[in-house]
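Example 3.2
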Amino acid sequence: MMKYIKIFIISISPLFLGGCTENNIDFEPISQITTDQVTSSLELLENTIVGNYAFLSSAEGKYGYDRTRYDVTEYMSDDVILNQWSGNDFSYSLTYQPTSASDRSLDFWQYSYRAIYSINVANEGLDNLEGLSSEDEIKRDQLKGENIFLRSMFYFDLVRVYGRPYSHDDPATNLGVPLSDTSTDNEGLSRATVKETYEFIEKDLLEAATLLNEEKSNIYVSKEVALAGLSRLYLFKEENDKAIVYADSVINSGRYQLLSSEAFPRYNRNAPVGNSETIFAVQRLATDNVGRYMMGGMMHGDGGYGQIMVSSSFMDLLFKNPNDLRVNFIDVQYELDAEGNKIPDPDNEYYGYKVIEKSSIPEYWTQKLTYQDDEPMLHSPIYFRLAEMYLIKAEAYAKNGEEEKALEMVNIIRERAGLSGDQLFRLDNLQGYGSVLDIVLDEARLEFAHEGHRTHDVFRNKKTMDRSYMTWQGWSGPGSIPYTSNRILHQIPEAEMLKNDNLVQNPSYTN
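Structure, written as tokens:
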């Protein structure tokens, strides 16, 4: 596995290009820099680490890491429905039919480990620098903190795709993913356990939090980004007190504010820099826009394919309160008459007008992944935003039995969404819910729909994914996926299994 990774890194990164040989004559083109030169220079290592951010969106072909990561996670949620069958390998995820032959799974695995290798090379260079001034030592620490945070992100994504949630069975025996913090001796690695993988991520995040010392903009890693990562990690580990502490540290940092109710409906249209709610995002510029191959390429038809719609299940939840501002993230495709006017439809409980249907599926598109700066398909993937810190606290409080505090956190988010009065939750007004935890999970579903959270939230909380709304002809996936099913685990790509005899494949599904 890692031998292939090294070749890839050398071939795409000008900072890691070595000298060339021909006819036994060594020469070094002046436009190229050797790896040794890069790793012995703080300035060049800084350029390399800035380049490592690009792994979060870069692609060898047409699909970037951000799109591939989205394909193998969000498409498994109950917030989406496919209105036209597709031969693209994302369908293996969408239909819960994991296979080692999936190109999306292969891309996700290889993009991740190529990035990890590059990060490890840069870390070793930073660790080996000598004779630095005190000012340069501070700069080195910041750069290393950014770098190891990025590594923690890749590993956290990997273990959540190929390993069972930490809360399932025994994380000390469930298999995670191969781990490495070095650029050498990476071939033939075995899979660490889920527990070992989470411990590796935790160590990286804790170290990053101590090293990060510069208040950078939200397209770079700062201390608060690492603290947000720790809060999410501890929630997944069900270490609820720690999750609350780290969420509070981000909330109380004073660096971020929830967007106002007036500004919130245009959240997706704001570039990340200057957005007060965004803690960390991967910046995509207009020059990075590859249209339908972008992260939202399947989710909206203006510049994209528009084949994956918002599910009726999600729409039912959203329209419990039709004045919820989050309705603004739904782009309804109306039928129009000859004059271009919407056609009234009293049977449409959501909007009152006829909606275009394909395969009997109403075309409700999400706008969460498009229209940045009002440009179709342009989107900067958001990894952390402040609303999540409040809902992390809400979930942790609910699991700790502090239900009133949990509802207080939920209501902060609901009030921002324009809800008030009896639309807010109280212990004597659970609005038909059986538990406060169920309220929290539904609020997270409303708030983070189509942002990549839902699949993880369902299965780590030992819930069943209800896909019973997918009944149209051609659907070949199950209508109900319990958290115990092997379907929730992606298969390790066959190409990686063939290269590494020490890899153990995930169990296949049987029903």
